[in-house]
Amino acid sequence: xxxxxxxxxxxxxxxxxxxxxxxxxxxxxxxxxxxxxxxxxxxxxxxxxxxxxxxxxxxxxxxxxxxxxxxxxxxxxxxxxxxxxxxxxxxxxxxxxxxxxxxxxxxxxxxxxxxxxxxxxxxxxxxxxxxxxxxxxxxxxxxxxxxxxxxxxxxxxxxxxxxxxxxxxxxxxxxxxxxxxxxxxxxxxxxxxxxxxxxxxxxxxxxxxxxxxxxxxxxxxxxxxxxxxxxxxxxxxxxxxxxxxxxxxxxxx
Length: 253
Hints:
Mean pLDDT: 82
Number of strands: 2
Number of helices: 10
Low-confidence stretches: 241-253
Largest sheet: 2 strands, antiparallel
Order of helices and strands: HEEHHHHHHHHH
Shape: elongated
Strand order of the largest sheet: 1-2
Helix content: over 70%
Distance between the termini: 85 Å
Radius of gyration: 33 Å
């Protein structure tokens, strides 16, 4: 906006200066119905410049008022989100939901509000409400994020939260179904690897866990001695599983 002002203002000042110091300042006649307005070109230009400057500064003033209000709402929303996070850490999950949902329309990224509310309600064993917040987060991503990169980033966070909730409920089959796409999308994401490790250990999917073990070592998910111990445990478990499976097949024959 300031560039427009400067690009218009200085040429007008130059024109007015030229007309003021010239012998003939020109003549302007404006006739509206039965009324005539007579003035010089110099006076008309000065009047137009004055009107333009008045309009410009009024616009800037209104814009600053609007920005001030928006900043105030944004700060209030951030304050509520910080307080909600503190309440979550304190275990006051009901207040977490209240604070997050009260500012959902003013939130900079409502995905955070929905997902934290989903985790809070899950802590209270309100599974239906938790699923509803996850669904609202997914719907928001579909509606608001047109860019593929932004949508994928937020969808990754959503799916990590969903698998974490499924695992906490004991829905191990759903969690296992959800972890494979996450490993494909984000194979080096620390939380994805942690969830995959828990799921594969619970389901005794040792071959799958062995496949991600090099990545776990690369990302230093655990100290090297723990990684080595886990690797040895998995290798010991594989022959046992195979042998027991062969015995069951022989008995059935």
